[in-house]
Structures are given as structure tokens and as C-alpha cells.
Design goal:
- Belongs to the ABC-2 integral membrane protein family.
- The protein contains ten helices and two strands, in the order H-H-E-E-H-H-H-H-H-H-H-H.
- It is mainly α.
- It has one domain (about 30-280).
- Strand 1 and strand 2 form a beta hairpin.
- The longest helix has about 35 residues, at about 85-115.
């Protein structure tokens, strides 16, 4: 007995003529698959990737508010605010969101190069921008999850008020900050050849810029030279804008900072795209 189906019931396996691409515009299935892979990757070790940075951020808040008694007010934009209310938004965006975003993005391609599985990123039918969007999207998802946990915990912390005043500013600068560190993480992941390289960027670039950005103090009280350095630090504008969403005041021009960080994000995105497209340090 023949195993072939009757004539007329045979379905053609070829859905398009030879040379005609099946995926014409956006490979939404592939983009979603890689994004879900990136999210599931950090959720598998959620104690390290989600809860650890959340606890660390809360420890910063506890230590600084106890050490100062949470009684030393800070002048921001000519308005005096309690120290605890001043420091909380900066910790959420700098320690709770931007740090995890960089850590997630800087790990993806690097671990593939070290383990020899980089082909899993390069071989699937994904365009360069789809690959970049999935990597950045996964990192930003981790950033917002950790940031949301930190915000919920700080809302319950006595003496701290983190009620949003301008929710759109919080969302906008949260997106700008998470994207900024995600692109930096992708660049690091492309450039680095071992974990020491990524750790060097974290310790000697990300950490200093984060700690010297006005998270724990108002830059208006600094000496002119240090104030100029702070105004050249992109972290300062992200933190100041994010803090504005909670306090309604800031120590930097919100519109100027928004435009500047958006321009930096676009430039970093274009640079990541070009390096991925060329396969720099990826297709050796």
C-alpha cells in the first residue's frame, strides 16, 4: 500500500518561489523569540539579577538615611526637600534601573563569544536592528522590573515619599536612562573578549559616573570645577530628570537634559547597529 497521499491532496512545501524571501518586512516571530530568551535568561537566576540589585538599592537608602538621620534638607532648584525624598528617586534610576540594564546587555553577546555559542545570535534569520532591539529590550525589561520593585519598597519605607508628581517625566527619563545603559552594555559586549573587560567598564566607567552624578548630593553645592564635571556627566541629566518626576523640581534644565540624552541614545544606537552589521569582533 502506497504511503503517498492521493493525487490532489499533496500540499506544496514551497510557499514562495526560489529567491523570494519568506520574511518580507519584520521577523516578528524571531524578534519575539530572542526577546523572550533574554528575559527568561535573567529570570532563571532572579535572585541574582532581580532581587540582589533591589536589596542593594534599599540598603543604600537605609544606610544614608540612618547616617544622616534623614533630617538634613537638600535645596533642589531653589526648593528645600527632605534628604530621604531627594535620594530615593536617584537610587531607583541609577542603582535600581541603569545598573541592571548595563549588566544584562553586557552579558548577552559576551557569554556567547566565550562559550562559542555566538552563532546562536548571528545565524537566525534576524536583521541587525531586530537583533539589537531584542537585546536592548530584554535589558530594559530587567531595568523596569527592578526599578518597580525598588519603588514599591521605598513607598513602604517610613519617612520616604516617592509619590509621582509628573508620571510622564518618570517614564520618559526611565526609558532614556535604561536605553542609554543598554546600548553601552551592547557596546561592551561587542568589544569585550572576557569577563574582566566587562568588569573593567563597570568599575572604572559606569560606577564613577553613577556615584558622581548627584545621586547622593545636590551639584549646586559643589565647587565650580566639580560642578562643571557633573554637568558634563550624562548620568546627571538622567537622574535629575527622573527626580523631577517625583519632586516637581530639578537642578538641571529638564528639556535640555531630555534632548541631550535622546541625542546620545540615538548616537549609541547607530554605533551599535553599525558594529553589529559589520560583525566587529563577532565574526572572527
Amino acid at each position: 500500500m502506497s504511503s503517498q497521499p492521493p493525487i490532489g491532496e499533496i500540499q506544496s512545501a514551497i510557499r514562495s518561489a526560489p529567491g523570494v524571501p519568506v520574511i518580507r518586512n519584520v521577523n516578528w516571530g524571531g524578534l519575539k523569540t530572542l526577546y523572550v530568551k533574554e528575559v527568561r535568561r535573567f529570570f532563571k537566576v532572579h535572585l541574582q539579577t532581580v532581587w540582589a540589585p533591589s536589596i542593594t538599592t534599599l540598603l543604600f537608602l537605609i544606610v544614608f538615611t540612618i547616617a544622616t538621620g534623614a533630617k538634613s534638607p537638600v535645596v533642589v532648584g531653589g526648593i528645600t526637600v527632605p534628604f530621604a525624598d531627594f535620594i530615593a528617586p536617584g537610587l531607583i534610576i541609577s542603582q535600581g534601573m541603569m545598573g541592571p540594564a548595563f549588566a544584562n546587555a553586557s552579558f548577552s553577546l559576551l557569554v556567547g563569544k566565550i562559550q562559542g555559542t555566538i552563532v546562536d545570535y548571528l545565524q537566525p534569520p534576524l536583521s541587525t536592528w531586530e537583533l539589537l532591539a531584542a537585546l536592548v529590550g530584554g535589558a530594559m525589561t530587567r531595568a523596569f522590573i527592578v526599578g518597580f520593585i525598588c519603588w514599591c519598597a521605598m513607598a513602604l519605607y517610613p519617612g520616604v515619599h516617592v509619590t509621582p508628581t509628573h508620571p510622564l517625566a518618570i517614564l520618559w527619563f526611565g526609558l532614556l536612562g535604561a536605553a542609554f545603559l543598554s546600548f553601552l552594555g551592547v557596546l561592551t559586549s561587542i568589544w569585550a573578549e572576557k569577563f574582566d573587560h566587562a568588569a573593567a567598564v563597570t568599575n572604572f566607567v559606569i560606577a564613577p559616573l553613577s556615584l558622581l552624578s548627584g545621586t547622593f548630593y545636590s551639584v549646586d553645592r559643589l565647587a565650580p570645577a566639580f560642578r562643571a564635571f557633573s554637568h558634563a556627566n550624562p548620568f546627571f541629566y538622567i537622574i535629575s530628570g527622573f527626580r523631577y518626576g517625583f519632586l516637581g523640581t530639578a537642578d538641571s534644565p529638564i528639556m535640555v537634559g531630555s534632548i541631550a540624552i535622546l541625542a546620545v541614545d540615538i548616537a549609541l544606537g547607530v554605533l551599535c547597529y553599525q558594529l553589529l552589521k559589520r560583525g566587529w569582533k563577532l565574526k572572527n
